[in-house]
Amino acid sequence: MWDSLKDAADALLNPRSLRWKIAALVTVACCAVALAVGVLVHRSTYELSMSAGGERALTALTSEVDTYLRTGRFPAAEDPRALPPALEQAAGDGEPVTWYDDRRPDVPWMWAARRVGGRVFALKVDMGTDLRSRQALDRHIVLAALAALAVVVPLAALTAELPNRRLRRVARTARRIAAGDLDARTAEGLRARGGDEIAEISATVDTMADSLRARLRTEQRFTADVAHELRTPLMGLVTASGLLPDGTATELVQDRVRLLRALVEDLLEISRLDAGAEHADPRPVPLAAVVEASLAKTGLHAHVEVTGSPTADTDPRRLDRIVTNLIVNAHRHGRPPVEITVTGNTIAVHDHGPGFPRPLLAHGPQRFRTAAPERGQGHGLGLTIAQGQSEVIGATLTFTNPPEGGATATVRL
Predict the structure, then answer these.
(1) Where is each Histidine kinase domain found (predicted)?
(2) What is the three-class DSSP state of 99?
C-alpha cells in the first residue's frame, strides 16, 4: 500500500511522468483545434462583416447618385478633400468601389465611391458596431476554449491514471524481482489475452520471472547436489590424507584437501541460504568481543578500534561468520594494514588495497568470482556468504571505495 502511494506521489510530482505528458499533449491538441476554429470563425465573420458593410455603403451610394442624377444635388456628398487618396484613385467611371478605412482602429468606416462625369462621389458608413461584434465573438471563442481546456485537461490526467497505475505496478514488480523476490507477479498477465500493450508487458514480466525462478532453482539444486555428493568422497580424502607419512608431499596434499573441504562447506552454506533454510537466533551480543574472537579465529592481524561498549541483539554465530569472511577477504584481496572499526551498531572493515571492483559495487557479490588477477575480476564465495548471512540476521552489508583509497565493507545491524 505504501509503495503504491509513494509511486502515485512520485508520478504526480514528476513533470516527466506519462500523466503530465498525456495532459500536455491533450492541451496542445485542444489549443491547436481552438486556434484553428477561432481563426476560421474570425476570418469568416470578418469577411461577412466586410461584405455586409460594403453592401450597405454601395446601396446608400447608389441611392444618393440616383438622387443627384435626377435633381443635380448630392445631399450626402463628402468633401473631396477629405476622401482617402487610395479611394479616389480606385474610383472608376460607372463602377462603384468600396474601401475599408481602419486608419483609426477604434472608429472604422466603410467607404463607397463612384466617378460620375469626372467627379468622384463618395460616402461612408459606420463599421464600429461590426468591429465590436467581432471583438465580442473573439472573446467568447477564447473563453469557450479556456473553459473546454479546464474540463478536458483534468479529465485527460485522470484518464491517464489507469494506465499509469498499471505501469507502476509492472515497474514495482520488476524492482521486486531485481531485488530477489522471484515470487513477485504483476497479476496483469491473467488479462493479457486480448488485452492492450500494458497487459502484454505485464504477461512478459511474469513469464520472465517464472523462467528466472526456474533457472535459479535449478542452479541452487545443482549446487546443493554437487556439494552433498562431494562430501562423502571428501571425507574419505580427509581420512586418507591423515594416514599419509609425514613429508612435504603429505603437507601439500593435506593443504589442498583442507581447501577443498572449505569449498564444499561454503557451497553447502550457500545452498542453505538460497533455500531459505537458515534462521537467526538473536540474543544480546557484545560486538567488540565478537570481533576480537573472529579476528583471533582467522589468525590474521588487524587493528581494532571500538567506541564505547556497543551491544546488539543479533545471532553471534552468523555475525562471526560475516566478520570472519570480511577479514579474510580484506587480507586476501587488499593490502595491510587492515582496520576494523566498531561504532554503535556498525562494524566496518577497511583495507588499503586497490578497492572493490566496479561490478561488485554495482551489482553486489556474485559467487565463483574473485578479485585475484589470475581468476579475473570480481569476488569469491566469502562475500556471497557474508551477504547471505547479513540478510538472515536482518543486517545491511555495503561495499564502498573511500576517496582516500582502499576498500571498506560495512555491516549495519
Answers:
(1) 225-413
(2) strand
